[in-house]
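Long-time lurker. I teach an intro course on protein structure, and each term I like to show students one example going from raw sequence to a predicted 3D structure in token notation. This year I'd like something fresh instead of my usual example. Would anyone be willing to generate the tokens for the chain below so I can use it in lecture? Attribution to the forum is fine with me.
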Amino acid sequence: MTATQQPPSRGAGASPHLPRVPFPVVDEVARHCTHRAEPNTVHIEIHLPGRVDPARLRSAFARALGHYPRALMRERSRGWFARHYEWELTAEPDVEVVTVPPGSAGALGRARERALTLAPPLTSSPPLRLEVVEDPDIRGCVLLFTINHTALDGPACLRLAATAAEIYSGRRTPIVPPPARPASAPPHRAARAPVPARPARVAAGTPGPVPGNAMLVAELPVPGRHSGAPYTVNDQLLVATALTVADWNRSHGAPDRPLRITMPVDDRSRGPEMPIGNGTRLVDVGFTTTDVDAGTDIAPLLRRTAEQTRALKAQPRPQLGRAASLLTTPWLPVAVRAGVTRGLRLLAAPWVSTTLLSNIGRIPYPLDFGGAGRATAVWFSAPARMPRGLTVTTASTGGRLHLVLRWSRSLLGDDDGVRLHDLFAHHLAATSSEAL
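-- Reply from a regular --
Happy to contribute to a lecture. Here you go:
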């Protein structure tokens, strides 16, 4: 069943007594724009040095879901003239969330492929799945989550995983605070507004033979920063992403245009009280053609980027902007608004940002699963639908940067992904304090 199908007669809408929650703006827009060829999934993989007990993990994750009733939701059926999509909150899961595929060579690759091609249906509660992957080519095991991004985002699912780890191990663990942003923002310095001109697109490479997404998973050193540097690792990642796309486009003969990189900003607490759902707001970081010129001086570019991101994070803004808030106002039936939203998305495609960088940052939980050990690596990936066609997602654990490049196969092929990784690694190293 795809996420766009309506629920079976026993499913959402069958009980008038369950609590209902209208879709928030982010969920509604994502639901309008669901596309079968490019499922709207977030993938998370947590690598553990040992092996978990599946029955114990099932019990721990079921109890973790009980701590967060907002995660136990499914889409409620509706009539044609309904003004809202609605989530129906269930008392318990409709499906077994935790599964254990057969352990064999290549099991992790197959699980990753499922995460990109098979979205958990919105019509079953909860709209996520967790696979316990054992592969002779990896040490220990991997907990691989696939989330339907219409319902949940990566940080929310990670909070569920952290609660499950505490239950599984039988001990509460303190949250590791994320690195603080530098407090020395230049006074009275406003952020440069994103360049209003049509932004650059990622130049086409060699598209794959089938539609959908593909990804490359890699580990890199976290770039160094001088003590007291006015920029953060996130700013270094933004600069590396911009320079990577600019290099890629030059090598493919694309015209010089300003770049815009969408950056999710998450203001939620990471503690047990964290709201579950899609909680980030999106801002666009602009780079001029001069910023990404082949002879760019990296140090001033890092400072300019830091000024911009600090100001953008400080400005209150609806999650998807004011236009999305207007589109989701229930002035027409939701089915009509869906058609309007899809049409406007198609018209606005040339002005959509160049790419998306989602930096989770240092993982704020130890993810300690008792005898299976603590997480040694955590990777995320975000959807890479056209017209962007490429997303860059990063997290850090144990002083290492865990990078995923994810792309649309209608734009790029596997060899293109390898080349983009090499460019990104080169430009990220150039932002390190040792290179400046």
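Some talking points for your students: The two ends are 52 Å apart (CA to CA). The mean pLDDT is 89.
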